[in-house]
Specification:
This protein has 8 helices and 31 strands. By secondary structure, it is mostly beta strands. The chain folds into 2 domains: 264 residues, Sandwich (Immunoglobulin-like); 160 residues, Sandwich (Immunoglobulin-like). The strands form 6 sheets. Strands 20, 21, 23, 25, 26, 27 and 29 form a 7-stranded mixed β-sheet that branches. 10% of the residues lie in helices and 36% in strands. It binds CU-O-CU linkage and copper (II) ion. CU-O-CU linkage binds next to β5 and β30.
Length: 489
Amino acid sequence: MTRRAVLAGSGALAIGGGLAAVLGAGGRTPVGASTTAGRRVLKAGTTSAPLIDEASQIPVWGYNGSVPGPALRLGQGEAFEVLLENALEEETTIHWHGVRVPNTMDGVPHLTQPPVEPGGRFRYAFTPEDAGTFWYHPHQRSFEQVGRGLYGPLIIEEAEPPQVDRDLVWMLDDWRLNDQGQISGGFGSRHDAMMAGRIGNTITINGKPAAPLIARPNERIRLRLVNAANARIFGLDFGELDPMVVALDGQPVEPHRLSAPLLLGPAMRADLIVDFDYPAGTRHSLRDVFYDGLEYELTTFECQGKEVRERRLPDPAPLPPNPVAEPELATAERHRIIFGGGMMGMMGRTASGSDARNEQRTGSGMMMERMGGSGMMSGGMMGWTVNGVSASGHVHDPIISAARGTTLLLDMTNETAWWHPIHLHGHSFRVLSRDGQPTRYQEWQDTVLMAPEERVEIAFVADNPGDWMFHCHILEHQAAGMMATIRVN
Ligand code: C2O
Ligand code: CU
């Protein structure tokens, strides 16, 4: 399949599946004894998954033979232990994305632990302080390991969870399949790295094609969305369904309705409360409208059967807050962070920056074709940078070294023509402002999506000692230099 065909294919995504897949598309993945504390094993290895339809078994990488890996559910404050077994032919680790773990449990090869050799094991143990929707994935060659399917949900339950009829996790992903229906090679290509990252042509929810979500009238569903894609940004338009957002990146937020599509960059999560106050027989479409010209229906929500209750439940109360230290802005230490690099510098000769912006929203690669193919990629190629440095490996001189307990205020500017979901390990931060305007909810996040040329201020108390990765979660951008380290002493 030519690249053109792959790209064209991304307009007509492989969305299908029948009723048989309905429950599977959203149900709790049963995990043996998942609610009791104790030791679990996650074995990273090769397996297969029905990415296109129930009959398709496509070679992938997964934990315990499945994509996503087992849904790990445990209680807030409950001790947690996982033994990672590496059945891959390369080194790996597990990173517990968004969880404020001790540094030695963070899963960053060479920085916080030695990578786990093929055939090797590593024991992770920690007690999560925060309830919420998190996920796990390798931090070793993650552009390929995550891209081939190594990821899974980690759900930390509130002591008193909000009352819902069902609690569903949807791990969104996209895959780049070739015309044999196999995962295309070329992971980490310079072409993907310098543009929008590896955008795929086949979307899955929980490792399968999306199937309709069937609900009963007046049913209340907690829908936990996780974007596990390497590079794809989702812009989710729920239309009339109008859910309430109650948490972002696992952290409670003042419950609110969406006033625009929900933007979910790679690694970001959102917890929604969806009330189906519609009669049986109604159908609502969930559309992904992020990439201009490539909008598509991701799935549908359908009301069927007998009503669960006579009328819809009242709006949900806020989730109980997590014990995250409040930043002290008056005494904060302010740091400027500049993200740079990518295609824009070169673009000056051939196209404007705004063309590059549009290119990211119309899918990776078309600009390349228009500009004459890969020939132009030689020469002026540059990496992505944080404060002028394009990093390699996982061990760097820290860009910030803070005394424990300091409030850090990062004043970040995206000087590139591309979107970047910027992730900090070991902490959650408040998003204070965007382009000088205070954010409405001052939301806590661990990954903040920055638009081209956008300026975003975040703040957090640097209270977790260690060296922490700070990087773009478009995994190809990270690999091509868009990462740094923040040290908390
Ligand atoms: Cu989800 Cu540094 O990663
Ligand atoms: Cu990026």
